[in-house]
């Protein structure tokens, strides 16, 4: 666990949100990000059902859930907003879903977070710091424990004095790579 | 159970098969057809895993499994061969998959079989007669029983004397709607 | 598959049946026997739920389900009728359950059938012949297929002319070891 | 959540522990207690597998798991130490299991905790205070969150100055009913 703020979300569009979202929008809440691809079986069978359970289990004013569509293969089949919208509609995904921006070999946010593939689950604390990232499966007990620990932490105002970096009582934060 | 031969498969292409396939190609074997859409959650979670289990459980020289992609919604997202190929690749679908021909409000084979939606599971006996059709789920015990019953039936040569219709010892068959 | 009648059920008592039962009592129906122990995890988690599904799936006038309590270990804990009755009550086992007779190193019916342990699933055809026996798990599709095959067979009156042995049109049956 | 210490464990014996155990033995660790009966299907199918997952997921020096056999029915079938030992052996229960003392209409610890039935899951914090109790099922995400929250709390020495009651910085504790 480092003390660096979570990198910014670099997106080309959003579903289920009237405006683009980024890490600071969730300040004060624990944020769970599920990076997925719509044609990734592990995402469909495990990752997405799990964050739907997370969204049902925890109060929305304490914890937020978002998806991030990080397409790095089969672009023709799953790379359009229409395909993603159809998928989100059929699978009843009601949370905001960002479309990771395609501007390199890998999508931009995927690169900024150093993700190894999909599904990747990321947890950001109330103060905007990335506290957990896992490629592949994590079971519900372990994930619940991580979320419970972070929910028990206060949202220290000082820690967010300068979300772009800087020092406070807990330490000094490196600004996000931006 | 009527004595009518199963309607012909009207397709615009096939995956996992070098040539187009139709009911008579499976003569002598029990044929299980899974009609699905790649963005249909019930197909992905239940129907397709079930016929993969069927394909593993029964000997290939006695029972054949095929898919039929009957797209009737979200055509932009799932209506291309590329999208289906990516899906089949990611979900490790190794059986032949026909693409139901789009030439009306509903795909042509879907209409010919009177399907109500996806997933629909169809079982054709060794002699080319449709013996079972179910929209939605069927559990493994019940499906296994149906397949066991049909596998126990001999492939009476006479019954197939005229696969396009005609009479034999078991009765008179109406020719397929063609 | 031999043509020998299923060995007799040698029991010291029955639950859920006013009278003792034996193979000939099920003549005309396919009979599924689940040999189990109440403290056998594989029986509780797989075998017993599976035959409860079997009992729900098939019509009772065509197929019967019974249990056989074949205690070969932990006799003090699970060897009494009271323990079995409490277990059957809590697990809602409504089918007849025979108590395999304890008169040797192994229970008598367990020995007669050559069972290797619990759970063991046995299927007897409409004519009283043992057609399938499996120690351990069998999945629903495969079991359903076996049952479907046997349900499709007629109960030939002649084959049961002499259930204790003898010859008929299908062949000559060795009398049960009795 | 009150500030009362968890009631004492009133037992007539233990499995998987050379000595009797009680709440103060777990001081400094979060303690998860699963109250169960060996013939309770909900315990066998959900409660016990869940605390086995808990035991595997969390480090033993931070969190302890114990069972409590609270027999309140079918005493003849499940009320002996032999029956429980056979059950624990077959289900591979490796954690300490206390046998709730039979000295009233209900077992003594069951009464002291006001349990409504089995399974009941109880969580005691590092300082010996009961923080959670649930009759029936709780899903893994929610349980994980509770455990994560309690694991994040320090074991304040002062809070345990007088585990039998008394006041400290957090408040005043009613002595356990003893």
TrEMBL record, chains A, B, C, D:
Superkingdom, taxonomy of origin: Bacteria
GO molecular function, one term: oxidoreductase activity
InterPro entries, alphabetized: AhpC/TSA, Thioredoxin-like_sf, Thioredoxin_domain, Thioredoxin_ResA/DsbE_sf
Residue intervals of the Thioredoxin domain: 1-152
Protein name: Thioredoxin domain-containing protein
Organism: Rhizorhabdus wittichii (strain DSM 6014 / CCUG 31198 / JCM 15750 / NBRC 105917 / EY 4224 / RW1) (Sphingomonas wittichii)
Organism ancestry: Bacteria, Pseudomonadati, Pseudomonadota, Alphaproteobacteria, Sphingomonadales
